[in-house]
């Protein structure tokens, strides 16, 4: 087993040392990073600084560089129970009390 690990160390040294000395080591690290995580080393830094998931690979797929936070869109709908169904409007019904709104049970929560 020792001879195998020694041989592996020797072979990897023969392959990696010349690569690092020729200046191509950075390119090899960038390539390995993209293959392993779909992000370049610079993408990892930008993601860490911005707090978002950023990647050059996303731009190649036609997406934005960073994954943007999803906007929470809450529709302005006011629904009330009627005889046998529910009626919804784009503004509150002035003839109904706010307690009759369906899905708006904040009035039951304590402070």
What does this structure look like?
- By secondary structure, the chain is mainly alpha-helical.
- The chain has two domains: about 1-60, no CATH class; about 80-110, no CATH class.
- The chain has helices spanning about 1-20, 25-35, 40-50, 55-60; strands spanning about 80, 85-90.
- The protein is rod-shaped and about 85 Å long.
- The model is unreliable at about 105-110 (pLDDT under 50).
Topology, element by element:
Elements: H1 2-21, H2 25-37, H3 41-50, H4 56-60, E1 78-82, E2 85-89
Antiparallel strand pairs: 1-2
- What low-confidence regions span 5 or more consecutive residues with pLDDT below 50? 107-111
Q: What is the typical, i.e. mean, pLDDT?
A: 77
The portion of residues forming beta strands comes to 5-15%
> Any idea what the radius of gyration is?
30 Å
| Class per helix and strand makeup | mainly alpha
Number of helices: 4
Give the biggest sheet: 2 strands, antiparallel
Order of strands across the biggest sheet?
1-2
Through-space gap between termini: 68 Å
The total count of strands amounts to 2
User: Portion of residues in helices?
Assistant: 40-55%
Shape: rod-shaped
Number of domains: 2
Please provide the ordered H/E string of secondary-structure elements.
HHHHEE
